[in-house]
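Annual report, structural modelling task.

Input specification for the iron/sulfur cluster complex:
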Amino acid sequence: LGIPSVPLKLAERRKSRKLQVGSVAVGGDARVSVQSMTTTRTSDIGATLQQIAELTATGCDIVRVACPTQDDADALATIAKKSQIPVIADIHFQPKYVFAAIDAGCAAVRVNPGNIKQFDDKVAEIAKAASATGTPIRIGVNAGSLDRRLLEKYGKATPEALVESALWECSLFEEHGFRDIKISVKHNDPVVMVSAYRLLAEKCDYPLHLGVTEAGPAFQGTIKSATAFGALLSQGIGDTIRVSLSAPPAEEIKVGLQILQSLGLRERTLEIVSCPSCGRAQVDVYKLAEEVTAGLDGMEVPLRVAVMGCVVNGPGEAREADLGVASGNGKGQIFVKGEVIKTVPESKIVETLIEEALKLAEQMEQDGVAS
Ligand code: SF4
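The model returned the following structure:
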């Protein structure tokens, strides 16, 4: 039919300024980083460092901690020093905590200069202190806390209102020659959020921190974030992401990494390709897929394992994967690298797949392909 070939890639990445959040570069050609925020009291140094360690082990690149009190500000120096990943202090209204966070060696500060200006105009001093230490600032505009002036002008938190607010906040720092900024314009509606980021991406070259705010419990928040981030990242927009879930922060990291892996923006780790099952299935596909997933949990190599319920698509998918099973008649044909290596009874499918997966993983590790 003469169908032209299409490139297997996303749109070219938007050209943003690169800045350094501690050891992690954000923007420019740096890989899209994944962030989360601790849920402990920051003043509880032990609990906060424990949660940061869990996040680090899950693959978190940058962590943010809230700083609403003096006790929290006092804890920042120890946390910033002992954390294995860069720590961002999240501050609202109180300029004294911004200075404390900069002094404490935090890798960046999230603060909205509009709030500071309103209460105690210390923007010039913050710009000076942040410049002197090379501490970037994230301006985080949020639909829920949009400036009253803009709410009156636009009627509600429209994309235009969010972007105008962000650019105005930036201008408060730019007046003092400070441009080490990244921006977020979060909204709980993915359509508004995507529109706001698209608009913002055209209006400035600051790196963008993507987030759907108050995205909800794990299931809904995952879908909302994946939909919105997918739309933006596939257009090359977004330099760092935070999935917000009403769930433990490590779950946010898992979802964020999966989104990036699905878009080919991160090395893949284990991928289970399993069919949804249907009236043709001759084995319990859900159970098989669950057991294989559980058995291979934590595997770091980029292994693709297919678990298929019958011979319609089974052999094709199993052959395409590194390892797979095409089931039928109470048996499973086990494929490794495109070849059938054996046929086993249904009761042996899971253990055979796990056994073969471990052999392949070992081989891949020896060949140096672990991600
Ligand atoms: Fe149905 Fe077979 Fe396809 Fe699974 S592989 S969805 S059982 S047709």
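Residues 50 and 198 are 37 Å apart (CA to CA).
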